């Protein structure tokens, strides 16, 4: 079973839920929050198996190029600019669609691989990491997801938000756990996350983290919309403190391991 | 004109809470919510929408099956796996590159403007605000962020405001880079957890990469003092000025529940001090 953990709002406890769930049910864990991957702060694994994630970006052969400008006209991302005697390639803007090579009448374009991040892992855990200054996280997320082995239970830690990298992280999951906190910001962003999952047609349930810090509005919303509340994790100094030190709280509070197993049984 | 962008790397450290407070203290700045994925600032600033603009980011392909001859060229050439096995366009995967339009021998692929979100120009009790809502699963958050930012700049020029305060998004990618563009100062809000420190380092590298002066605020500094010291040490080693440290204080959540800024809720003196410090630094920038 593939279980994604997502949230809309950042900092609600996705990584906490993903790491502790994976440890409790002995699942493979994929950290798809490639902009800020944090799972390994808790797992502290030495990840030796490292692969580069690259995009194909155009290289112009100036012996062939006649500066006709068709490549730049075609490029929807403004990654190419053609002047009278030069072609500028803005590599960071290139999505690697391959269109410029297709439209070039002089066959003057080839591609080179440009590294935008990497995937590291050890068989039971994989994480993606986007390079600093790079804008496009989605190809790195896709590379992490290639590590999915459908025969094994897999937990995916998704990035916050509701745009492309989130969709890529949760798509094709069998179930999605949405982690939220009982505050107005938590609720507002939960609604957005629910919209994402409705659009993708993935079944989902809610984990309320830091239960007790805010109000009842998240619970009321779940009840009104028949969304199951799978678990409530109370706001406890001990849990927060373990988090701050990078310790999965189920290791120090083993009663929670059983609760995560029950959560898994409930959504299976 | 000065532009302050509040970012964090890690989500949930208090960006929006602080941005709201700064909006209350700044007296007439233009406020911009650049977290277009999951915006929250409107929940405490209650903007009254004056103007709405449709935002169209990338285009979207769609296949006309009356014309399609099943040659599968689109399928073979799409680098984004956006053409399904039965030759339909997966809207969530299509990045609007136009390759399928180009390779189709019978012009069966249409290329349309896509409805990607809405830009709002509003008024709040603290001044004008620009915000937006990106449609679910859109790819172009960076473009919409740039539009929010440039619109805020236009309004600032028109109304002779000398400050823009931007609420950024978590992460280090596309929307964060777009919200940092043209910033005079980046304020990174962090928390004393190992994740907070890890993410602070990464997002600081991004602001450094773009040559933007950076300050740090440690929120909930007392939940792990040892980690707070690690953050202080990191800042000292990198010459980053600490704008201030805020203890864990349930009043911040209470203010949020009352949909107020912390300044309106309890006139928080620490946040006031932080704002004074930021103002001073911004004024000293050439």
What are the SSEs and their pairings?
The complex is a heterodimer of chains A (268) and B (286).
Chain A: E1 2-6, H1 14-25, E2 28-31, H2 39-43, E3 49-60, H3 70-74, E4 80-82, E5 87-89, H4 99-103, E6 109-121, E7 125-130, H5 138-145, E8 154-157, H6 164-170, E9 175-180, H7 184-200, E10 204-211, H8 217-224, E11 229-234, H9 237-244, H10 249-252, H11 255-267
Parallel strand pairs in A: 1-8, 1-9, 2-7, 2-8, 9-10, 10-11
Antiparallel strand pairs in A: 3-6, 4-5, 6-7
Helix pairs in contact in A: 1-11, 5-6
Chain B: E1 2-7, H1 15-26, E2 30-33, H2 42-45, E3 48-55, E4 59-63, H3 73-77, H4 99-103, E5 109-113, E6 117-124, E7 127-134, H5 141-158, E8 163-167, H6 174-180, E9 185-190, H7 194-209, E10 213-219, H8 225-237, E11 241-246, H9 251-257, H10 262-266, H11 269-284
Parallel strand pairs in B: 1-8, 1-9, 2-7, 2-8, 9-10, 10-11
Antiparallel strand pairs in B: 3-6, 4-5, 6-7
Helix pairs in contact in B: 5-6
Give a written overview of the molecule.
The complex is a heterodimer of chains A (268) and B (286). Chain A is an alpha/beta fold. Chain A has 2 domains: 2-48 and 122-267, Rossmann fold; 55-114, Alpha-Beta Plaits (2-Layer Sandwich). Chain A has helices spanning 14-25, 39-43, 70-74, 99-103, 138-145, 164-170, 184-200, 217-224, 237-244, 249-252, 255-267; strands spanning 2-6, 28-31, 49-60, 80-82, 87-89, 109-121, 125-130, 154-157, 175-180, 204-211, 229-234. In chain A, the strands form 2 sheets. In chain A, strands 3-6-7-2-8-1-9-10-11 form a 9-stranded mixed β-sheet, sandwiched between helices. In chain A, strands 4-5 form a two-stranded antiparallel sheet. In chain A, helix 1 (14-25) crosses helix 11 and helix 5 packs parallel to helix 6. The model of chain A has no long low-confidence stretch (mean pLDDT 96). Chain B has 2 domains: 2-56 and 116-284, Rossmann fold; 59-113, Alpha-Beta Plaits. Helices cover 38% and strands 24% of the residues of chain B. In chain B, strand 6 and strand 7 form a beta hairpin. The radius of gyration of chain B is 22 Å and the shape is elongated. The interface between A and B is large, with 59 and 62 residues.
């Amino acid at each position: 079973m593939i279980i994604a953990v997502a949230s809309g709002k950042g900092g609600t406890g996705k990584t906490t839920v993903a790491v502790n769930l994976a440890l409790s049910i002995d699942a493979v864990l994929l950290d798809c929050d490639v902009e800020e991957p944090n799972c390994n702060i808790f797992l502290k694994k030495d990840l030796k198996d490292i692969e580069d994630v690259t995009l194909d970006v155009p290289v112009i052969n100036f012996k062939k190029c006649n500066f006709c400008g068709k490549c730049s006209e075609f490029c929807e991302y403004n990654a190419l600019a053609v002047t009278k005697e030069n072609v500028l390639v803005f590599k960071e803007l290139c999505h690697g669609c391959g269109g410029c090579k297709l439209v070039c009448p002089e066959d003057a374009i080839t591609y080179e691989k440009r590294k935008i991040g990497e995937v590291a892992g050890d068989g039971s855990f994989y994480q993606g990491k986007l390079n600093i200054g790079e804008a496009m996280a989605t190809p790195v997320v896709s590379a992490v997801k290639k590590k999915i082995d459908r025969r094994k239970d897999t937990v995916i830690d998704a990035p916050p938000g509701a745009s492309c990298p989130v969709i890529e992280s949760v798509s094709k999951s069998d179930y999605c756990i949405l982690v939220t906190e009982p505050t107005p910001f938590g609720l507002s962003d939960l609604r957005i996350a629910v919209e994402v999952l409705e659009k993708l047609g993935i079944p989902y349930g809610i984990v309320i983290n830091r239960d007790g810090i805010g109000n009842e509005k998240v619970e009321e919303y779940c009840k009104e919309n028949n969304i199951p509340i799978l678990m409530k994790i109370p706001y406890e100094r001990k849990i927060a403190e373990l988090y701050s030190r990078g310790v999965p709280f189920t290791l120090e509070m083993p009663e929670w391991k059983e609760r995560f197993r029950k959560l898994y049984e409930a959504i299976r | 004109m000065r532009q302050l962008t509040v970012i964090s790397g890690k989500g949930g450290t208090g960006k929006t809470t602080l941005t709201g407070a700064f909006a209350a203290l700044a007296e007439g700045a233009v406020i911009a919510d650049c977290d277009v994925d999951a915006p929250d600032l409107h929940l405490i600033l209650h903007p009254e929408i004056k103007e709405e603009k449709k935002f169209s980011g990338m285009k979207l392909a769609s296949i006309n099956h009356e014309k399609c001859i099943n040659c599968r060229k689109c399928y073979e050439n799409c680098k984004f796996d956006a053409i399904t096995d039965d030759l339909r366009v997966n809207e969530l995967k299509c990045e609007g590159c136009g390759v399928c339009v180009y390779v189709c021998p019978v012009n069966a692929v249409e290329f349309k403007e896509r409805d990607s979100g809405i830009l709002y120009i509003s008024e709040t009790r603290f001044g004008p605000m620009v915000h937006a809502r990106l449609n679910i699963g859109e790819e172009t958050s960076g473009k919409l962020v740039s539009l929010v930012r440039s619109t805020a700049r236009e309004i600032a020029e028109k109304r002779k405001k000398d400050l823009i305060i931007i609420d950024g998004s978590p992460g280090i990618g596309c929307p964060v880079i777009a919200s940092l563009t043209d910033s005079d100062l980046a304020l990174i809000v962090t928390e004393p957890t190992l994740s907070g420190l890890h993410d602070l380092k990464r997002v600081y590298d991004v602001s450094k990469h773009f040559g933007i002066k950076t300050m740090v605020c440690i929120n909930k500094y007392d939940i792990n003092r040892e980690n707070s010291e690690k953050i202080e040490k990191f800042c000292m080693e990198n010459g980053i000025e600490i704008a201030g440290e805020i203890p864990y204080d349930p009043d911040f959540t209470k203010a949020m529940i009352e949909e107020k800024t912390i300044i309106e809720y309890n006139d928080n003196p620490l946040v006031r001090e932080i704002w004074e410090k930021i103002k001073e630094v911004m004024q000293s920038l050439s």
